[in-house]
Each structure stands twice: as structure tokens, then as C-alpha cells.
Amino acid sequence: MLRLLRWTTDHFAQRGIETARLDAECLLAHALGMDRLRLYLDFEKPVTPAERAVFRELVRRRGADRVPVAYLVGRREFWSLPLRVSPDVLVPRPETEILVEAALDLLPPESEARVLEIGTGSGAVALALAHERPGIRLTATDLSAAALELAGRNADELRMAERIHWVQGHLFEPVEGETFDLVVSNPPYVAESQRAELPPELLHEPSEALFAGPDGTELLRELVEGVSGVLAPAGALALELSPEQAPRVADWCRARGLHNVSERRDLSGRVRVVAAAHRVEGGA
Ligand SMILES: C[S@@+](CC[C@H](N)C(=O)[O-])C[C@H]1O[C@@H](n2cnc3c(N)ncnc32)[C@H](O)[C@@H]1O
User: Fold this and answer.
1) What is the pTM of this model?
2) Nearest-CA neighbor of 205 among 146, 260, 131, 252?
């Protein structure tokens, strides 16, 4: 087993995969139907020819086709929740936990707020919020029916199906006439112009989950422009974005009359979230 791991790690590293050892461990554990940490406890266990064949195919798809490990094993952890993922949804990213943190700052522990997530994908953000704030009422949308189906399955498995109302459609269209205290979104924000330079793994993810116009801001802009129509008077908005988009999105928020525009940064100091508050009734 250890020899297999060493060989696969070298093979992945030669192909320029930065997480070579981790990927090799995840795929071997998956092929053997065990936990990754179990590998080191059971390292003398012989690998059967059938397991070896499964592993070989996983290694080929990772090494040659550059399929993300999460798609190969069908799972990814987000906010410590074990989620199912498939090529119908974006693989939830660690930086999106910053969006969850920003949203939680706007939701006191006893909150009963009405929260809207636009573009839920695997359901990662909505499920993390439902998990942390038992009193909130959540609506989560996506353009993709396949994504909503998977998100619903994740909610079932995490016993949160009753907590989230899933609706399909473009941005605010499926919630027309409704009002929310908080709107959160990690919309597609990659620039079309970057398509050719992206790591090969990203090309396995749904393009409608990644790209949003020539500079990536098309949906961010629509979100800022439309949010007042669904926000309660004291409501708020939190958006994930790429750092260079932050100043423009913050300006759009101010131009639309939103207040308290703030930023949230990752550990390397790059802005990953812009948040803003709706006009408070009777306020400035
Ligand atoms: C970047 S992914 C985020 C997925 C998930 N919320 C996460 O953070 O991992 C963006 C999601 O928005 C959805 N989407 C794209 N365009 C949309 C639109 N116009 N209206 C609603 N959802 C949209 C995509 O299908 C995708 O699931």
C-alpha cells in the first residue's frame, strides 16, 4: 500500500499536481473503501486486483484528465459538513467559508431572519448557515435544476431538508414579491478572458458556475442592482468576489444607496467578500 502511495505521489507531482500526496491518499482510500487516516493503520493490508483496477482508473483520471479529486470521490467537506458533489456543481472552496463567516456576523445566534442564497450549487453556504443558526428561514436558488437536486440530497442527508426552500431561476426572479433580511451569494465571477489560462481542473466544473461576462462582474452587478427589490428595510447583502473586483462592487453598492459597505479578507489579506446594508427606515 505504501509503495502504491509513493508511486502515485511521484506520478502526480511529475504532472504538476501540487497536492500530489493528499490526492494519492484520498484516491487510494476511496478505492479501498476506507477513511484516509485508516490507510496508515492498515498499511500492510494487501490490495486486491479489483481494488487495484479501481485505483488505477482513478489515478488515470486525476493524472491525465485532471479531474478534481472531489468529483472522483463524489464528496467534499465544507464548514465541516460532508457534502456530495458532482460535475453538476462547483466544488465548494475554502474561501467561501469567509462568506459564511460574514453572513454569520450579520445573524445573531437567536436570529429568525429570512435569508436568501442566490446560486447555491451543492447547497454548501445555505447548509452551513442552517447548521449554525437554527432559527433562520432559508431560501436557496440556482439556475441549474441538477444543482438544486444535489443540494436537496445534501440537505436530506444532513437532516436539514425542512429548513431550506429550494427554487430554480435567474437571480431574483424566482423570489419576486418576497422580502429577506439577508441576501448572500457566491455567484460566478471568473472573467471569460481568463478561460484559456485557468488550471485544467476548472474546465471540469460547470461553466455557468464560473464565468460571468468578459471581466467576471456581470452577475455581481445584477445582484447589486436588483437586491433592493428583495431586501427588508434593515436587510443586508454579502457577496463573494475576486479581490480585484472589490472596489468596483463596493462603488456600485454605494451608488445604489446601500450603506455600511465593508470588506472581509482572507488570511493573505485579499478581499474576498463585500457586504453592505440596506437603507434603514428613517435612517440617512
Ligand atoms: C460559484 S457557484 C457557487 C456554488 C455554491 N454556492 C458554492 O459557494 O460552492 C455559482 C452558482 O450560481 C449558479 N448560477 C449561475 N448563474 C445564475 C443565475 N443567473 N441565477 C441563479 N444562479 C446562477 C450556478 O449554477 C452555480 O451553482
Assistant:
1) 0.94
2) 146
Residue 206, classed as helix, strand or coil, is coil
Q: Does an H or E element contain 58, and which?
A: helix 49-63
What pLDDT digit, counting tens, does each position of 132-169 carry?
A: 999 999 999 999 999 999 999 999 999 999 999 999 99
DSSP, collapsed to helix, strand or coil, labels residue 255 as helix
- Which residues sit with their C-beta closer than 6 Å to ligand 1? 89-90, 92, 96, 118-122, 124-125, 141-144, 147, 170-171, 186-188, 208-209, 219
Q: At what angle do helices 20-32 and 2-14 cross, to 10 degrees?
A: 130
- pLDDT over 80 at 71, yes or no: yes
Tell how far the Cα of 186 is from the centroid of ligand 1, in angstroms.
7
Our mutation pick for probing the ligand 1 site, out of 88, 142, 148, counting the most ligand atoms within 8 A of Cβ, is 142
